[in-house]
Specification:
single chain; 259 residues; alpha+beta; Photosynthetic Reaction Center, Chain H, domain 2; SH3 type barrels; 3 domains; 7-stranded mixed beta sheet; 16 strands
């Protein structure tokens, strides 16, 4: 378990290259899952767009660094619309007020704690009217931009020390953002598009972003058939082929190309 402050600012190390590829700039919160889905990356070179690492690509979060398998795990957020949506929601936890369903103020969030293996938010440090306490994340109903909505009886679940979160039986783990989840969200996004033109615009943007990039791994369709070999230089037709193969395939392509 790590406090958010222990993660932000850590160097990001590529295991394959043995080199630092950036530092952790911020944690992108998925309010629906109560988890960290992406780590945004700050790099030394000029950045024209926001870079990030999907949490599922993180190998480990240690005391001195965050490790990933390779530098290609850093992606351009504009290539993954769902990720971009999460960033634009600007969900934060620190300095938000914790209010019960019935409108009672319990305290103000000062810090939050993350399971470094899964990315789940496990607890929140609150500044109370008198003193401080730790609220298990299982008591949070809604992660809002400025307010946390919590259970009415949340005050009865307050803990004295963050270490007690590891023993709290009420915490129910949630899964890290999986490719299937991204695919489902992309399908929902497509279905809710106002018209065909909006969907076509999204597809053309994907083509523009991915055409000319080289794949870093083999890509398979939903039936397990090989579509593209690692090292393939994607053309426009390749990107369209991936789009036709389904949301999970285009997501897989987007997350496995050279930066």
């Amino acid at each position: 378990m790590k406090a958010s402050a222990q993660i932000i600012g850590l160097p990001i190390i590529s295991i394959a290259d043995g080199a630092q590829i950036g530092t952790v700039k911020s944690l992108v919160i998925n309010p629906d899952k109560g988890s960290i889905d992406f780590l945004t990356v700050e790099q030394d070179d000029v950045q024209l767009s926001l870079k990030a690492i999907p949490f599922k690509k993180v190998v480990g979060i240690g005391e001195f660094a965050v490790t990933v398998e390779q530098g290609h795990d850093v992606i351009d957020l504009s290539e993954i619309p769902i990720a971009n949506q999460l960033v634009n929601k600007q969900i934060r936890i620190k300095n938000t007020k914790a209010i019960t369903r019935k409108g009672q103020l319990l305290g103000e969030a000062r810090e939050f704690f993350v399971d470094e293996e899964s990315g789940d938010i496990v607890g929140i440090a609150l500044q109370l009217e008198k003193g401080e306490a730790v609220l298990p994340a299982s008591e949070v109903l809604t992660y809002g931009k400025d307010i946390l909505i919590i259970n009415d009886g949340a005050n009865e679940s307050l803990l004295d020390d963050p270490a007690q979160l590891l023993k709290a039986e009420s915490i129910e783990p949630t899964s890290v953002m999986a490719e299937e989840d991204v695919s489902a969200q992309m399908e929902a996004m497509a279905e809710s598009a106002e018209n065909v033109e909006a969907l076509q615009s999204l597809r053309e943007k994907q083509v523009a972003l991915l055409a000319g990039k080289r794949l870093t791994k083999d890509i398979y369709d939903a039936d397990g058939r090989l579509l593209f070999k690692a090292g393939t230089l994607l053309g426009e037709e390749d990107v369209r082929k991936a789009q036709e193969a389904g949301p999970s395939v285009i997501v897989d392509v987007s997350m496995n190309v050279e930066a």
